[in-house]
Design brief:
Layout: H1 3-20, H2 23-40, H3 44-55, H4 62-85, H5 89-98, E1 99-100, H6 102-110, E2 115-119, H7 125-136, E3 140-143, H8 149-161, E4 165-168, H9 177-185, E5 189-193, E6 203-207, E7 210-214, H10 217-225, E8 229-236, E9 249-253, H11 262-279, H12 297-305
Helix pairs in contact: 1-4, 2-4, 9-10, 10-11
Length: 312
């Protein structure tokens, strides 16, 4: 069995196993896994590089990397347990109380042109999605078509059961953009994770003070449909143990961005994401290369020389 097949089997097993475990045990296992990865430096080198950009000029300490790995592990523990948590009225009430800036989303939806929400890979964006379904109904998002296909199917099934509509980033039927445009014209919500250029056709921007290629999908959708772009920031306010009746999920929805050209709007998204990442760096779960300086030479050449700028 290939390594990716083992990984897929592990994720699928996680969805079954962690839902059956007592809550505290599930979180403790997650923390243990994070600490083991941190001690063995498995996957943490790139995380530390990314955190250095967020914290510059302050140094990234080993303790901070450990904290970031624990935050990442918390996301996965909650992802595995979320299918059995999502309909809990207490959870929904807690999420309602934890969201800031709801008025910005409501105002956007009242205008009838839908809304584009752009997030970074931070906090628990799936938990935020559960709140969004509860507050405004089904929304549409785009997912990387992971390999093996069984893993991609598992993620799509997981998020579909939570009430999300999930479109593949690439498929035989073409780009998801026409469907996303139609959802916005229907007054619906589109959510996009915004700081990874999956298509390798994004445009160069300044992200956290460093050159990076970001996708232009959100800017293009706004330009073609008139839908506003809102940046949302997901984070943890404290550890997983309940404190003052909350379990530490936070999300802030910011006012709509001023949109102009594709290039300027994408830079505005990068600026806003830089602010949200800097505000909660340990909750930024970015273990992959994002900045141009960290890309392998072949991909860096492609990113620099592809002039289409149509990344999604």
């Amino acid at each position: 069995m290939k390594h990716k097949d083992f990984a897929a089997a592990g994720y699928i097993l996680g969805w079954k196993l962690f839902r059956a475990l007592p809550q505290e045990l599930a979180y403790r296992i997650g923390e243990l896994g994070a600490d083991l990865a941190w001690r063995g430096q498995r996957g943490t080198e790139q995380l530390a590089k990314n955190l250095q950009r967020a914290l510059h000029p302050a140094p990234v300490s080993p303790a901070l990397v450990r904290q970031a790995m624990r935050s990442y592990a918390r996301y996965w523990v909650e992802a595995f347990r979320l299918p059995s948590m999502a309909s809990d009225p207490q959870l929904l009430a807690e999420l309602d109380a934890s969201i800031q800036g709801v008025e910005h989303l409501d105002q956007a939806l009242d205008n009838g042109r839908g809304a584009i929400i752009v997030l970074s890979h931070s906090g628990n964006w799936d938990m935020a999605g559960v709140w969004l379904v509860h507050h405004a109904g089904t929304f549409t998002t785009v997912a990387e078509k992971l390999k093996p296909y069984a893993l991609y199917e598992a993620f799509v099934d997981y998020r579909t059961k939570l009430g999300f509509e999930v479109l593949p980033h690439t498929s035989d039927s073409g780009s998801p953009m026409p469907t996303l445009e139609q959802r916005l014209r229907d007054g619906k919500i589109v959510c996009l994770l915004g700081e990874r250029d999956l298509s390798h056709r994004g445009i160069i921007v300044d992200l956290l003070g460093q050159p990076a290629h970001l996708p232009t999908g959100a800017a293009r959708l706004s330009q073609t449909t008139g839908a506003p772009i809102l940046i949302a920031d997901c984070y943890f306010t404290h550890g997983w143990q309940a404190h003052n009746g909350t379990r530490g999920w936070g999300m802030t929805i910011h006012p709509a961005l001023t949109t102009t050209t594709i290039e300027n709007t994408t830079q505005a998204i990068a600026d806003a994401l830089s602010e949200t990442i800097t505000a909660h760096p340990v909750d930024w779960h970015m273990l992959q290369p994002v900045f141009d300086a960290d890309l392998d030479p072949h991909r860096r050449y492609r990113a620099t020389n592809d002039a289409t700028g149509t990344g999604e």
